[in-house]
Amino acid sequence: MSKRPKMLASVVRDIIAPVLRECPSECGMVSITEVEVTDDFSYATVYISALKEPELALKFLEGKLFELTRSLGQLYRKRIPTLRFRLDYRTERGGRIDELLR
Question: What long-range pairs does 75-82 form, CB within 8 A, spacing at least 24?
Fold first, then answer.
């Protein structure tokens, strides 16, 4: 990934992070684990994790998609990527591997 997509990934993270505080309390703590922006700026894939109800957090963020895209357009004018949200299962897999190794 070149420097410019990384900069845009940082902008995307800054826009989405405050919205995470609005996630339903049933989700527990929700966090962004990674943001990947394609080299042509077409897509920004945001990986999230939630302590309790990750599917609910994902659904909540997808419901905020229009609002988040509009906010992104106000800060970043060149090319606005399509936002995609994905659940990040790496932490679960890592915990399971640790458990198996014990």
Answer: 75/11, 75/15, 76/8, 76/11, 78/41, 79/41, 79/42, 81/8, 81/12, 81/37, 81/38, 81/41, 81/42, 81/43, 81/44, 82/42, 82/43, 82/44
Residue 52 DSSP symbol: S
Return the CATH architecture of domain 3-101. 2-Layer Sandwich (3.30)
Q: What is the mean pLDDT of residues 67-92?
A: 84
pTM more than 0.85: no
Domain coordinates of the chain in residue numbers? 3-101
